[in-house]
Design a protein that fits this description.
By secondary structure, the protein is an alpha+beta fold. The chain contains 4 helices and 5 strands; from the N terminus they run E-H-E-H-H-E-H-E-E. A 5-stranded mixed β-sheet has the order 3-1-2-4-5. The chain is elongated, with a radius of gyration of 16 Å.
Length: 123
């Protein structure tokens, strides 16, 4: 199966366990892999036959508006579900990178989700 990858999209979301950490938005990097059949788009050269990765990026840039999360695990799971629901890939993998430990380049969480049979989503 084919995939579209959006790598290290920079966003600012309110996330963190302590209230003080969530008070200000933090810089995060999001990477998203969407598994889908790209053959129809390749054959037709038509954007409507694929997942519009620009639309995905715009949705992610605004995803944190007015929201906050304690855990990046929760954030990653919510992003994955939104992408499944709104963009209909067969499966999605989301990685969230957070920069809170000075001695480490980053901390990351990755989740993978796929459409379940019988939910009305294509597989």
């Amino acid at each position: 199966m084919d995939k579209i990858t959006l790598c290290d999209l920079e966003v600012s979301y309110h996330v963190g366990v302590p209230d003080a950490e969530r008070a200000q938005p933090q810089r995060l990097l999001l990477s998203v892999e969407m598994v889908c059949d790209l053959a129809p788009a390749a054959a037709s050269d038509d954007l409507s036959a694929t997942i519009d990765y620009y639309a995905v990026s715009q949705r992610l840039l605004g995803f944190g508006a007015g929201r906050s999360w304690r855990l990046i695990e929760s954030l990653a799971a919510e992003i994955a579900q939104m992408i499944l629901d709104d963009f209909q890939p067969r499966s999605v993998r989301v990685e969230v990178k957070k920069f809170v430990i000075p001695e480490a380049r980053y901390v990351s969480v990755s989740v993978a989700r796929e459409h379940r049979r019988g939910t009305g989503h294509r597989l």
